[in-house]
Amino acid sequence: MRKLILEDFLEDIDYALIGIHCSIEDYRLAYLLNQHLGLNLKRKASDIEYNDTSSYSIFEWEDDKQLTVWNLASNTCKIEVKDAIDADSLFINDESFTKTKHLIPEYKKVNFILKISEIPNQNIEKVILNKILSIPQVMTAYSIDATQLKTTDNLIFN
Question: Potential cystine with 69: which of 6, 79, 107, 117 (Cβ 3.0-4.6 Å)?
Fold first, then answer.
């Protein structure tokens, strides 16, 4: 009798995640990260889209020297939803409201996610984090443990 162990087939997480809290626009944050970290993040031609209802901006840079891929993705998406009509009501409700969706629902207060693929070691992640924290427009930033996320599929950007 053979035994199949599922963990053998799951890929190890080979990227670092940093959650960034700030209230500036995505393109402005990408510009500041480029300046402070020496990156070359550029907006991708198409946004990340899920279920044709939510869309998240994404910037990318492939560092050929370090063989890493950097992604900056918005964690929030605001969509306008029409209020459902109540069949039991005499009145038609024609109101709409704004609903907020998140790329990583476990971190709803995070505005942006910085994903660094194939990061060589933890010390570099700490240096990157300190440089991000030195940006005046960033309120706070911290490492996110990807092994604790239920929505890691949302972090596959290719």
Answer: 117
